[in-house]
Amino acid sequence: MQIGGPAGAFVPLLAPIVVMMGPDGRAFGPEGLAVCALMAGVILFVLGACHLGTMIKYIPFPVVTGFTSGIAVIIMSTQLRDFFGLENKLPADFIGKLRGLAEHFHPNWPTVLLATISTFAIWFWPKKIGRHLPGSIVVIVVTSLAVKLFQLDEQSGIQTLFSQFGEMPHGLPMPHWPGLSFEEWRALIPAALTVAVLGAIESLLCAVVADGMIDDRHDSNQELMGQGIANAVVGMFGGMPTTGVIARTATNVRSGARTPVAGIVHALVLLFILLVAAPLAKHIPLATLSAVLVVVALRMDEWHQFARMARWPRSDAMVFLCAFTLTIFLDLPTAVGTSLILASALLVKRLAETAHIEPDVEVTQGNSPGQQVGGKNVPDGVVVFRIFGAFFFGAADKLESSLRRTGELPEVLILRMRDVLALDATGLDALEDLHEKLKRKKKDLILCGPHSQPLFALTRAGFLDRLGLENVCGDMEASLARARTLLNQNKNKNIIDSKTHIA
């Protein structure tokens, strides 16, 4: 059901690529977009072929909603000049736009009136009619006819596509290879990676929305490969990067679409408009187009998240505000990258807080009655520690800290690992260090009940071979039996060593 094409949410990302300076000091221009589309297409196809489409579920919700809300603000800020009919160009950055408005705000009131009427007309367009005839199309056609019939562009100073950009093309471009040097291609790789990642996110989120509307399930990897092919072909025709568009897809489904034929019809209608109606498009007023984008930004449906932040965990609210703020004041790649790093760091912090390493409260060292559980006694010289949660780099240092609090190392240390579901390289290194320390002091380590993932990691690293499979036990009873055996062996060895020394 998905409808693909240029997405309004990509405007803040793609516009800077056009004016970005290359290695030779010149702006990349539209050719830069074509190169980014080509490279992003290849990246998307590789992502899908490597079955990385399912990674979309690992993008935190606050990151997605944060930069989506920020994009809405950026879209509205890019329409300020056309909405108010300002003569002076506004700077590209958000703060610069606000400063420019404060210093040189001289609106063209006929333009403001037309933009305001267009905004209200699109916003309040009846939904029943909108399913078959979108309000934005009607408003664009009506205002274009009004400009042509009453010559509003000449009499009232209302800017149109023709007055701003010149004659509109009315034919198909021929395929060609972008005429940029190898150094310029290489300089555009970071931008292409960002386009690919955000295109993948936007497209897969759009597919998720369509799934919910038609009670279906999409293939994420197939979707990424399809988008990759589309972007690669579009790039060879000098087009801009594309993705699945949520607003158009939702409109498509609401209009009754149930098969991919709807997307084909959508493309053919666009082709007809390009070939037949392009000469008429030059009369479209920029004020009306700005009204369309303002309504799109207002309907991006993420504003209610600000009210929900008070009920979110504080860390999620921080990630949301980080993505939102950096999207507005810096740029989208920085916002997404920084907020993902922040979300990852906060996740590590949460997992580290859930990990505990402490003496077992059920079976502990000594001879008091509380040290007997189900008929099991912990002999002298044996200490039992239980590890809870993920034993990874954020929590590995807790093992050494917990052992240090106990004072001298025991003769046999039992680590109960039945509650450890994940073990990483840092946790493995901590266990290896502990084993070496105990081994140097002629003491022993026993692992009790490790789960499959930690057990597989320990086996693959060769740790179990060094520890000895006999020192890996399935339950507490077997671990205590092994501890008694080790204590007896050490005791007998000490007796033999003493006799030898005396002799």
- The average pLDDT value, as a whole number, equals 81
Number of helices: 25
Low-confidence stretches: 364-374
Biggest beta-sheet profile:
5 strands, mixed
- State the shape: elongated
Oligomer description = single chain
Helix content range of the residues, please?
55-70%
For the secondary structure, the number of strands is 9
Tally of domains = 2
Q: Using only CA atoms, what is the Rg?
A: 33 Å
Widest beta sheet: strand line-up: 3-6-7-8-9
In terms of DSSP E residues, the strand content is 5-15%
| Beginning-to-end CA distance, first to last residue | 89 Å
What structural class should be given to the helix and strand makeup? Answer: alpha/beta
Question: Can you walk me through this structure?
Answer:
- The protein is α/β, with parallel strands linked by helices.
- The protein has two domains: 4-347, no CATH class; 356-502, Transcription Regulator spoIIAA (2-Layer Sandwich).
- The chain contains 25 helices and nine strands.
- Helix 2 packs across helix 12 and helix 6 (109-123) packs across helix 17.
